[in-house]
Write a structure and sequence with these properties.
heterodimer; A: 317 residues; mainly alpha; 16 helices; 75% helix; B: alpha+beta; Glutaredoxin; 4 strands
Chain lengths: 317, 78
């Protein structure tokens, strides 16, 4: 449907030949814009209606009572399904620390949360198919698990800012959300407005980069350099991804274009994860609670974990 | 007079929330004293981890995201 719409608009109405670079790029852009924004609105609205209103406060209360390995699993799983704005990372970090949740578990939550979320998952499935989506989710969970465990080895407690340990969290009961259908509808609409308002720039940017890649990067060059899954392509993709930042949803069109040109799967997944999970703004926010050595370690551990996962996928595919 | 606090570390959503409360109060003619709380110890002291949050007369009425305009008006008139 979206393919046909884009063909009608770009090839018929504007008269651009699909064989030309501009024609191909523009077709990709129109198709993905229509498709992703349609899905974005539909998914967020549906999630808003049915979401069991899982808040970080509830996650904290739930995880604090669990033994270590269960706490890790729960924190990562809940991190994947709990949406939270990255400006909440600091209170979230402090709240977890105050609850006595181990730092490694908290880092697992902080890794899983930006990488995997329900919006990215549904759009990933719609654009790249459910198989790749499952792989992406499994890879993300694995990276969060191992990354958290590895962080723990280095005893990151010594790098936590002193004031963090002194904060005591209040136990006020938070207001329950309105569970009637009218209330849910309002909540869902609000979610659409808020999340689309936050994401649209990233999505457009991602689609633009994807379209340029799709239209202008020659296939022969890709198959010569990136398709074989040579070992160095994965760490290279991770390194390139670290300074780049986008929301997980915004990376999807880029990955779509890369896979379409034949870039190896592990390399593409590593690139996606590096962009979504490792970001400079997020690091600067976290600097308020942990010192530079811990941040450097966090970036290193994540980069290594993502590289290993990328290699793994290139070997099995 | 209602004592209203907007909890948040100064992110865009927190600013939006504070503005929303301010303009709604003005439109309804409700007198308020508005304070933006950015101190982490105080934010967490209210039991709030997901910002922005809204506290009215010492009670947390909202946490996590920009509140609905209708909800804000209901708090102001309550």
């Amino acid at each position: 449907m979206f393919d046909a719409l884009a063909s009608l608009l770009v090839h018929d109405a504007l008269g651009l030949d699909p064989a030309t670079r501009t024609g191909a790029a523009l077709h990709f852009f129109v198709m993905d814009t229509a498709k992703i924004f349609f899905m974005l609105v539909a998914v967020i609205y549906a999630m808003g209606l049915f979401r069991a209103l899982l808040t970080p406060e509830k996650v904290r209360r739930y995880v604090r009572g669990l033994p270590a390995w269960q706490a890790r699993g729960a924190a990562i799983g809940l991190g994947a399904v709990t949406p939270f704005c990255s400006c909440s990372s600091v209170p979230l970090f402090i709240g977890f620390v105050e609850a006595g949740i181990p730092l490694g578990v908290t880092f697992g939550f902080l890794i899983a949360s930006p990488m995997i979320n329900e919006v990215a998952v549904v759009i990933l499935a719609g654009i790249l198919g459910w198989k790749l989506t499952l792989l992406y989710v499994a890879a993300g969970l694995a990276v969060a698990w191992c990354g958290g465990l590895a962080m723990e080895r280095f005893k990151p407690e010594r790098w936590v800012e002193d004031y963090v340990w002194k904060i005591r969290m209040g136990e006020t009961a938070l207001p329950e959300h309105d569970a009637s259908w009218a209330g849910r509808h309002r909540f869902a609409l609000n979610e659409v407005k808020e999340i689309v308002g936050r994401l649209w720039k990233w999505v457009f940017l991602g689609i633009g980069v994807g379209a340029l890649f799709h239209g202008y990067v020659p296939e022969a060059w890709v198959s010569d350099h990136l398709a074989g899954g040579d070992w160095y392509t994965v760490p290279l993709a991770v390194l390139v991804g670290i300074p780049l930042y986008s929301n997980a949803t915004g990376v999807i069109p880029v990955a779509e274009a890369m896979l379409g040109k034949g870039v190896a799967m592990g390399t593409t997944l590593a690139f996606m994860m590096s962009i979504a999970a490792l970001s400079l703004p997020e690091m600067l926010i976290l600097r308020k609670v942990i010192r530079w050595p811990a941040l450097a370690l966090f970036v290193t551990v994540l980069a290594v974990a993502i590289t290993l996962v990328g290699w793994g996928f290139n070997v099995i595919s | 007079m209602k004592d209203i606090k907007v909890l948040g570390s100064g992110c865009a959503n927190c600013e939006t929330t504070a503005k929303l409360v301010e303009t709604s109060a003005k439109a309804l003619g409700v007198e308020i004293s508005l304070e933006k709380v950015t101190d982490m110890a105080r934010i967490l002291g209210y039991g709030v981890m997901s910002t922005p949050g809204v506290v009215i007369d010492g009670k947390v009425v909202h946490a996590g995201g920009v509140p609905d305009k209708k909800a804000v008006e209901a708090w102001l008139l309550a």
